């Protein structure tokens, strides 16, 4: 059974700790209902605690938008203080009881295929050794799908291969990525050990592309546009939503492909694929970690973001 609703007298300073915990959960989840469920409260009790805080501080803390809530500027500022107060309170209780304070909780992430398959496992492994009580839940999709998840508040952070112009999104550089043309060793360019080909020579080649919405497809189309070309002018024989599927199609002789060096590093090293440079287009790109500035970050997400800022993998270029 949930805790009883708070009375109007609970906006006095000495009764604010439960209010701050409730406020933090609402801010992090973007939902009164979700916070009530997590804290074992009724939804009216959550609403009363938030209203008591707003009366005590004299400012609105949330924008109500349909079924979701977003913190105001004052709400985002308060969340920083609230988390520090709550963490310090828990640390004091644990210290008095002779316990260490573990950092725990759930970290919700989404990543596009290249960072999700080739960077995230190492990041999560090292992060997990430092914060073993944080449980990481990650999903992999194309860049635009990941960005939409971040905007809807379904995940706290996303890792993507492209940027958008949304003013409420913050993109921080995660790593550099290099695109390369790959062909099977039996291809004429592989047999003759060509180092590079002109972009015009791609027109005669059966080309395999990633699906629309992927960061790789976006990068390639921008590069072609700068060279006065478009994917419509190329001989596209297949579109696939997976780098692994594209590699297999190239190995089977279906066509050639432009892929991330992260994705084909092993096959190039073992001689299964042959890589060339394409003159006339520049297919290097940055990978990013993205967050929605309208929402506050839960403690595990803040820790992960701070961890990435100093992590050596950030400076890695394939």
CATH superfamily of the largest domain: Periplasmic binding protein-like II
Which stretches are low in confidence, meaning pLDDT under 50 for 5 or more residues running?
A: 1-14, 314-318
What Rg do the Cα atoms give? 25 Å
Order of helices and strands: HHHEEHEHEHEEHEEHEHEHEEH
Beta-strand level of the residues, as a percent range?
A: 15-25%
Amino-to-carboxy terminus distance: 55 Å
CATH class of the largest domain: Alpha Beta
Count of individual domains: 3
Task: Characterize this entry briefly.
The chain has 318 residues and is an alpha/beta fold. The chain has helices at residues 16-29, 32-39, 43-57, 73-96, 113-130, 143-152, 188-191, 215-226, 243-251, 261-270, 299-309, and strands at 62-65, 68-71, 105-111, 134-140, 157-160, 169-183, 196-198, 207-210, 236-240, 256-260, 274-279, 284-292. The strands form two sheets. Strands 3, 4, 5, 6, 7, 8, 9, 10, 11 and 12 form a ten-stranded mixed β-sheet that branches. It has a two-stranded antiparallel sheet with strand order 1-2.
Q: How are the SSEs placed, and which strands pair?
A:
Elements: H1 16-29, H2 32-39, H3 43-57, E1 62-65, E2 68-71, H4 73-96, E3 105-111, H5 113-130, E4 134-140, H6 143-152, E5 157-160, E6 169-183, H7 188-191, E7 196-198, E8 207-210, H8 215-226, E9 236-240, H9 243-251, E10 256-260, H10 261-270, E11 274-279, E12 284-292, H11 299-309
Parallel strand pairs: 3-4, 3-5, 7-11, 8-9, 8-10
Antiparallel strand pairs: 1-2, 5-12, 6-10, 6-11, 6-12
Helix pairs in contact: 1-2, 1-3, 1-4, 2-3
Protein model, in words:
This protein has helices at 16-29, 32-39, 43-57, 73-96, 113-130, 143-152, 188-191, 215-226, 243-251, 261-270, 299-309, and strands at 62-65, 68-71, 105-111, 134-140, 157-160, 169-183, 196-198, 207-210, 236-240, 256-260, 274-279, 284-292. The strands form two sheets. Strands 3, 4, 5, 6, 7, 8, 9, 10, 11 and 12 form a ten-stranded mixed β-sheet that branches. α1 (16-29) packs across α2, α1 (16-29) packs across α3 (43-57) and α2 (32-39) crosses α3 (43-57). The radius of gyration is 25 Å and the shape is elongated. The chain has three domains: 8-96, Winged helix-like DNA-binding domain superfamily/Winged helix DNA-binding domain (Arc Repressor Mutant, subunit A, Orthogonal Bundle), CATH 1.10.10; 105-175 and 286-315, Periplasmic binding protein-like II (D-Maltodextrin-Binding Protein, domain 2); 177-285, D-Maltodextrin-Binding Protein, domain 2. By secondary structure, the chain is α/β, with parallel strands linked by helices. β3 (105-111), α5 (113-130) and β4 form a beta-alpha-beta unit.
